[in-house]
Amino acid sequence: MILEELMLDLMYHLPSQKRIKDFEVTSEMVEKRDVSIAMMEKAG
After folding, report:
1. Strand, coil or helix: what is 44?
2. For 17, how many CA atoms within 13 A lie in the half-sphere containing its CB?
3. Is the CB of residue 24 less than 8 Å from the CB of residue 1?
4. Which of 2, 6, 26, 38 falls between 20 and 30 A from 44, CA-CA?
5. In angstroms, what CA-CA distances link 30 with 3, 4, 14, 24?
6. What is the 3-state secondary structure (H, E, C) of 3-16?
7. What is the pLDDT at residue 39?
8. Measured between alpha carbons, how far is 34 from 31 in angstroms, rounded to an integer?
9. 35 CB burial (10 A radius; 0-12, 13-18, 19+)
10. Whole-angstrom Cα Rg for the chain
11. Predicted local confidence at residue 38, as pLDDT
């Protein structure tokens, strides 16, 4: 359920992100239950 919650926004936002080729869900993201665009750009 936690991963589903995190991945819901990602499935809409990741396809339009040209700079992000790979995406890894980290323990920090799960603990904070936050995967924002800023976090994705920092990770990418």
Report:
1. coil
2. 20
3. no
4. 2
5. 8, 11, 17, 11
6. HHHHHHHHHHHHHH
7. 56
8. 8
9. buried
10. 10
11. 63
